[in-house]
Design a protein that fits this description.
Length: 86
C-alpha cells in the first residue's frame, strides 16, 4: 500500500515540475505558449496573415510545442525517477 502512495506522490511531484516548464514557439508572428503538461497557456495570431496561412503556421507551432513538451517530460521522468514503472 505504501508503495502505491509513494508512486502517487512521485506522480504529483512530476506533474508539478512539468506544469512549471514553459515552451514558447513563434513563427511569422504566431506565438504558442504551452506548459510541460501540454496545457496551452497562450495563443497569439498574426492578423496580417490570411486564415489559411494562420491555420498552417498554428498547426506547425502546436506540433513543435507538443514535441518539445514530450522531450521535456521524458527528460524529467528519466532524471527524477530513473526506475519508474507504471
Amino acid at each position: 500500500m505504501f508503495g502505491k502512495l509513494g508512486k502517487l506522490k512521485q506522480l504529483n511531484q512530476l506533474a508539478q515540475i512539468l506544469s512549471q516548464q514553459e515552451i514558447k514557439i513563434e513563427k511569422q508572428g504566431i506565438r504558442i505558449v504551452m506548459d510541460g503538461k501540454m496545457k496551452i497557456k497562450q495563443i497569439i495570431l498574426n492578423p496580417k496573415l490570411n486564415q489559411k496561412q494562420q491555420e498552417e503556421i498554428l498547426k506547425d507551432c502546436l506540433n513543435q510545442a507538443i514535441k518539445e513538451a514530450q522531450l521535456i517530460t521524458a527528460k524529467v521522468v528519466s532524471k527524477k525517477v530513473p526506475d519508474f514503472k507504471i
